[in-house]
Specification:
With about 300 residues, this protein is α/β, with parallel strands linked by helices. It has 2 domains: about 170 residues, Rossmann fold; about 130 residues, N-(1-d-carboxylethyl)-l-norvaline Dehydrogenase, domain 2, CATH 1.10.1040.10. It is about 45% helix and about 20% strand. The strands form 2 sheets. Strands 5-2-1-6-7-8-11-12 form an 8-stranded mixed beta sheet. Strand 1, helix 1 and strand 2 form a beta-alpha-beta unit. The termini are far apart.
C-alpha cells in the first residue's frame, strides 16, 4: 500500500516508520527532520528499536497516489493541511490519529472517506531523524464518513502485520471523548509541572490533581453523550501514565520547544462543552488559562479573550 503521513512529528514518524517495513510510506515533515531521514534513515528507539527507511519530503510529491493518508498534524493545522491533499480526496482513505476533538469533522469537509482513530502509544521527538517509543498503548479505529467494516478490518490488519495492535469500534465518538479525557488529565499537568508522565502517578499530590481533572472532564464527556465511566477513565489514565512513564507529554514538548500547544483542541474543547451544559470545571478551566498564559509568554503575548 502507498501511505502518505501528513505531519511527521513524533506519532506520525513512529507509525510511518513502522509501516514502512512492509509498505511504501512517504513522511511529510519539517526540513531538518526530512533531511536527517534521507541521510541516515529514521531511528526509532525505546520500546521499538528500528532504523526505518521511509521516503521523506517537505511537500507532497507530484507523483503521489496514496491509498491511505495518515493525518498526524497538530489539531490547529488540520484545515490548512487538507488543502494540500485535495487531489486524493475522492480515492484515498483518510485516517486521523490526532489529539483533541474536531479533526475528523474538518477532514471530512474535504475527504470523502474518513476513519477516526485514537492511540495511546507514547512517542517523544528526540531530534531530527529520531523518535523514542516510550510507551506501548492501544490503537482504536472507527468509521467516520463513507467507510465500510471491510475498510476498517483491512486497516487493523495492516497495523497488526507490522506489530501495532489495533481494534475496531462501532462507537468511535465515545473513544474520542475517552482519549480526550485522558489527554486533558495528563498533558496540561505534565506541561506545567515540567515532568514526564510517570511522575504524575508517583507524586501523590499530582495524582490527586490528575484524578480531580479526570472526573471533571468525564462528567462533560457524559453530558456530550459519550458512553464513559469516570472511575474506569481514571484507572485508564493512571495506567497510561505508568506505561508511558518515561514519555514527555506532547504539550510539554511543545512548550519546551517554544511552539504552540494543542490546549485549544484538548482542554479548550472540554471547557467549551462544559459551558454548553452548565457544568462547573474549575480545574480544567484553570489549566486552560495557565497553558494559554505560558504560550503567550513564549510568543510575545496573547489576547486574554481569544479563547472565549
Amino acid at each position: 500500500m502507498e501511505i502518505l503521513v501528513l505531519g511527521a512529528g513524533a506519532i506520525g514518524s513512529f507509525f510511518g516508520g513502522v509501516l514502512s517495513r512492509r509498505h511504501d510510506v512517504v513522511l511529510i515533515g519539517r526540513t531538518e527532520h526530512v533531511a536527517a531521514i534521507r541521510s541516515h534513515g529514521l531511528r526509532i528507539s525505546g520500546k521499538t528499536a528500528l532504523i526505518a527507511k521511509p521516503r521523506a519530503a517537505t511537500r507532497i510529491p507530484q507523483n503521489a497516489k496514496p491509498e491511505l493518508v495518515l493525518v498526524t498534524t497538530k489539531a490547529y493545522d488540520t484545515a490548512n493541511a487538507m488543502l494540500a491533499v485535495r487531489p486524493f480526496a475522492d480515492r484515498a482513505i483518510f485516517l486521523t490519529l490526532q489529539n483533541g476533538l474536531g479533526n475528523a469533522e474538518t477532514i471530512a469537509k474535504t475527504a470523502r472517506r474518513v476513519v477516526a482513530g485514537t492511540t495511546a502509544h507514547g512517542v517523544t521527538f528526540e531530534g531530527p531523524g529520531e523518535v523514542r517509543h516510550a510507551g506501548v498503548g492501544e490503537t482504536v479505529l472507527g468509521g467516520w464518513a463513507r467507510v465500510h467494516e471491510a475498510d476498517l478490518v483491512r486497516l487493523r490488519d495492516i497495523f497488526a502485520d507490522v506489530g501495532i495492535a489495533a481494534r475496531v469500534t462501532s462507537d468511535i465518538r465515545s473513544e474520542l471523548w475517552s482519549k480526550l479525557v485522558v489527554n486533558a488529565s495528563i498533558n496540561p499537568i505534565a506541561a506545567l509541572a515540567g515532568v514526564p508522565n510517570g511522575r504524575l502517578v508517583r507524586d501523590r499530590r499530582l495524582q490527586e490533581v490528575l484524578g480531580d481533572v479526570c472526573r471533571e472532564a468525564a462528567a462533560v464527556a457524559k453530558a456530550e453523550g459519550a458512553r464513559v465511566d469516570s472511575d474506569e477513565l481514571y484507572k485508564r489514565t493512571v495506567l497510561i501514565a505508568k506505561r508511558t512513564a518515561a514519555n514527555r507529554a506532547s504539550m510539554l514538548q511543545d512548550l519546551e520547544r517554544r511552539r504552540r500547544t494543542e490546549i485549544e483542541a484538548i482542554t479548550g474543547a472540554i471547557v467549551r462543552a462544559a459551558d454548553r451544559h452548565l457544568i462547573p470545571v474549575p480545574l480544567n478551566r484553570m489549566l486552560f488559562a495557565l497553558v494559554r498564559a505560558r504560550e503567550g509568554a513564549v510568543h510575545g503575548g496573547t489576547d486574554a479573550n481569544q479563547a472565549d
